[in-house]
Amino acid sequence: AHPTDFPAGRHQPRAGRIVVPGRIESRKNQLLSLAVAQRFPAMHFVFVGGATRSDRRYVDLFHDELARTANASHIEHLPRDEFYPLILSAEAVLSASWFEVTSLIERYCVDNGVPLAASRYSYLDGPAAAPIERFDPADVDGATEALTACLARPPKRIVAPSGVTTTTSRTIVEVIEGRW
Q1: How far is residue 11 from each of residues 43, 64, 79, 106, measured CA to CA in Å?
Q2: pLDDT of 71-121, one tens digit each?
Q3: Where are any strands of DSSP class E within the chain?
Q4: When you count CB atoms within 10 A of the terminal residue's CB, does the N or C end of the chain come out lower?
């Protein structure tokens, strides 16, 4: 997949909605995102993504903590034509991954003006990454501060100079082949 495969849209935030996209697995660090959600009781955190079968213990911990978090819900699967409008409806997107090569969701957020709080281990960089609020994925306070910063500033769509998408969003094949 490439960022140009995803439908462009207009950020139309729904008050109080935070979207946390990604398969439920330890690498995506949703337990930290749930801890952050507990600090924002007036916001609703929507976790979107299927549960991995290879990390059952983490998935069970996620579901246990989700049950204790009144302002969070989990959607196992959304069709593409519903997923991207959900991202566009978020006041902010939270991505606490321990590791990302090139997150197409992060790229989508930046390209469409959706405020994004993301782990410092995201590899989205360059001019396109300027509006991202970064945090250490082991630091609940830092993630809380990053999300607070996202919510405090007005959303702004970034119009990247020609070629930024192709130079900042690399495919896995490009990395493997050493062309990056």
Answers
A1: 18, 32, 19, 14
A2: 999 999 998 889 999 999 999 999 999 988 777 888 888 888 889 999 998
A3: 17-21, 44-48, 72-75, 92-95, 116-119, 133-135
A4: N
**Per the confidence metrics, is the pTM higher than 0.90?**
no
d(CA 68, CA 159): 40
Report the pLDDT value the prediction gives residue 64, as an integer from 0 to 100: 98
- Measure the CA–CA gap between 112 and 88, rounded to whole angstroms: 8
Give me 98's structure tokens: 């321990």
- Chain segment 122-165, per-residue pLDDT in tens: 877 665 566 789 999 999 999 999 999 999 976 555 454 434 44
Place of tokens 């994004």: 116
**Contact in structure between 95 and 122 (CB atoms under 8 Å):** yes
User: What pLDDT, on the 0 to 100 scale, is given for residue 13?
Assistant: 72
Residues 178, 100, 128, 8, CA torsion sign:
positive
Q: How far is CA 7 from the centre of its chain?
A: 17
